[in-house]
Amino acid sequence: MSWLFGSSKKEETSTTAPQATSGIDPKLGFDPSSVADVSSIISTPGALDTSRLHPLAGLEKGVEYLDLEDEALSQMEGSQGLLPSRGWTDDLCYGTGAVYLMGLGLGGSYGFVEGLKNIPAGAPGKLRLNTVLNHITRRGPFIGNNAGVLAITYNLINATLDGVRGKHDTANSIVSGALAGALFKSTKGLKPMGYASGMMAGAAGAWCGLKYLLLG
Fold first, then answer.
1. 77: DSSP letter
2. Is the dihedral of CA 207, 90, 198, 145 positive or negative?
3. Residue 88: count of CB within 10 angstroms of its CB
4. Residue 189 in 3-state DSSP?
């Protein structure tokens, strides 16, 4: 049986011999002698320049990885408004954000005035401040959120009509405002739906009239 063990030892030495002669360390997976001297790398001019590690280094060469094709403005008929727009997504984001902030500001102002009127007589300073802040935080977010929902609904309907008709005009805006107002009050009954629809249609018409005056 010894010749069996002897043959296995020979096979093991024969398989490991090429690795030993090639210089590859089986634990590291590479030949350590092939690594260059670190001192030669350090001595290279500019190798340790800390300015190359700055996050904004190399920007003077220009930014080449940006795709500027998405910056093209919308060419739909009547889509040129007060602000440059690349499409309905810009109108949705900018319009909703602007209307929400406007509603938040108007609601906060209304709450501020309401809070001043409801301050208890002879109340200390902390109670007065607390009363005003309570009215501001109650009115501001309420009006801002409602205005934001109306703006989202209006812009989605308006973008759909623009896509179907192939143009952006006053008729689309007024119809979108009427539908958005009716949908917003759809759970309150026909009468509130009619009021909201008329108010939103009037607001959309006023906005179109303002754009016409400013743009000529």
1. B
2. negative
3. 20
4. coil
Residue 115 near residue 131 (C-beta atoms within 8 A): yes
Q: Give the residue extent of every domain in the chain.
A: 85-167, 169-215
Structure tokens at 35: 């690594």
What percentage of the chain's residues is helix, strand, coil (to nearest 5)?
Answer: 70, 0, 30
CA distances from 195 to 119, 136, 152, 207 (A): 33, 26, 19, 18
Backbone angles phi, psi at 189, to 5 degrees: 115, 170
Reduced 3-state DSSP string for 17-30: HHHHHHCCCCCCCC
Q: Are 186 and 204 in contact (CB under 8 A)?
A: no
The total of other beta-carbon atoms located within 10 Å of residue 111's CB is 22
| Amino acid symbol at 123 | A
Helices (H), 82-189: 88-117, 125-165, 170-184
Residue 97 one-letter amino acid:
G
- Angstrom distance (rounded) from CA 77 to CA 83: 15
> pLDDT (tens digit, 9 = 90+) per residue, 139-187?
999 999 999 999 999 999 988 898 888 887 889 889 999 999 999 999 9
Q: Indicate whether this model's pTM tops 0.70.
A: no
